[in-house]
Write a structure and sequence with these properties.
Blueprint: E1 2-7, E2 37-41, E3 47-50, H1 56-62, E4 70-72, H2 78-81, H3 88-94, E5 98-102, H4 104-113, E6 129-133, E7 139-141, E8 144-153, E9 156-163, E10 166-168, H5 177-180, E11 188-192, H6 206-216, E12 220-224, H7 233-239, E13 244-246, E14 252-254
Parallel strand pairs: 3-4, 4-5, 5-6, 10-11, 11-12, 12-13
Antiparallel strand pairs: 1-2, 1-14, 2-3, 7-8, 8-9, 9-10
Domain Metallo-beta-lactamase: 46-226
Pfam families: Lactamase_B_2
Protein name: Phosphoribosyl 1,2-cyclic phosphate phosphodiesterase
Length: 255
C-alpha cells in the first residue's frame, strides 16, 4: 500500500496570504503546503482519500490522481471538508454517489454545508454522497481493514485512521492511553505539528511530537499539518531526531 501527501499545511496553507516571512517567500517547493490531506492506494489500486479541503482540485491535478473510491473524513472543520463539491467530476464519471465515512456529527455538518447534494430532487450538476456513519471500532471496506483512532482536537473528537502498520493523525492535541495502544509497533506514524514553540490549544507542537515519538517508537514518524511558524523545510528536517521527518506535498510512503 502507499500513502501520498496531497497537502501538509494548516488551515491557512503555506504561504499565508500577505505574509512575507522567510517560509512564505521561500522558493523551495517543499515550503509550499496545501491544506492537509492524503491519498491511500490499496494493494488492489483502489483509492482512499482522507479529508477533502479547499485545495482538493489542485491537489488531484498536480498529483495526476484521477479517481477516488471512498473518502474518510477526520472531522468537520472547513479545511478538511469544504472541497467536497469539487468531487463532482469523479461522481459524474463513475455514475455513482461518492461514499463518505465519518462520525455521525460530521455527517450532519456535511449535510448543512452541502444541502443540495442531499436534496430529494437535485439540480443537474449537483454532487451526490452516500454517508456512512462510523464509530470508534475497526471496519472493512475495499478489501482493506481500517481502524479509527479517536483523538482530541481542542474540545471535539477527531478520527485518525490506521491501515496495516501505518497510522495517520491530524488535528490533535491529546491522545488517550487507550488509543495509544493502537499506535504500538508501527512502521509509519503521521502526526500533526503546527509549530516549534508556544503551546497550542488544539494542535501538537514539536516538543509534543518528539515526546510521542520517544514513547510510541514507530520506525518512522512524519510531521504534517505544518504552519509557516515551524520554519524552513530543509533546515528543520535536518534538526529532527533520527527517524523523524517533515512531510511535504507530493511525498509518497510505502507501507
Amino acid at each position: 500500500m502507499k500513502l501520498k501527501f496531497l497537502g501538509t499545511g494548516t488551515s491557512q496553507g503555506v504561504p499565508v496570504i500577505g505574509c512575507t516571512c522567510e517560509v512564505c517567500t521561500s522558493e523551495n517547493p517543499k515550503d509550499r503546503r496545501f491544506r492537509s490531506s492524503v491519498m491511500i492506494t490499496t494493494e488492489e489500486s483502489r483509492k482512499i482519500l482522507i479529508d477533502c479541503g479547499p485545495d482538493f482540485r489542485e491537489q488531484m491535478l498536480l498529483n495526476h490522481e484521477h479517481n477516488v473510491d471512498i473518502a474518510l473524513l477526520t472531522h468537520e472543520h472547513n479545511d478538511h471538508v469544504i472541497g467536497l463539491d469539487d468531487m463532482r467530476p469523479l461522481i459524474f464519471k463513475s455514475g455513482k454517489n461518492m461514499p463518505l465515512y465519518c462520525y455521525e456529527r460530521v455527517g450532519h455538518e456535511v449535510k448543512k454545508r452541502f444541502p443540495y447534494a442531499f436534496a430529494d430532487v437535485r439540480y443537474p450538476g449537483a454532487p451526490a454522497f452516500d454517508l456512512h456513519e462510523i464509530e470508534n471500532k475497526p471496519f472493512h471496506v475495499l478489501d482493506t481493514d481500517i481502524t479509527p483512532i479517536e483523538v482530541i482536537h481542542y474540545e471535539i473528537t477527531v478520527f485518525g485512521y490506521k491501515f496495516k502498520n501505518l497510522a495517520y493523525i491530524t488535528d490533535a492535541n491529546f491522545i488517550s492511553d487507550i488509543e495509544k495502544e493502537k499506535l504500538q509497533n508501527l512502521d509509519v506514524l503521521v502526526l500533526n505539528c503546527i509549530r516549534k514553540f508556544d503551546p497550542h490549544p488544539a494542535h501538537f507542537i514539536l516538543p509534543d511530537v518528539i515526546a510521542l515519538f520517544k514513547e510510541l517508537k514507530p520506525k518512522k514518524l512524519f510531521l504534517t499539518h505544518i504552519s509557516h511558524h515551524l520554519g524552513l523545510h530543509d533546515i528543520e528536517d535536518k534538526d529532527l531526531p533520527e527517524g523523524m521527518h517533515l512531510a511535504y506535498d507530493g511525498l509518497e510512503v510505502e507501507f
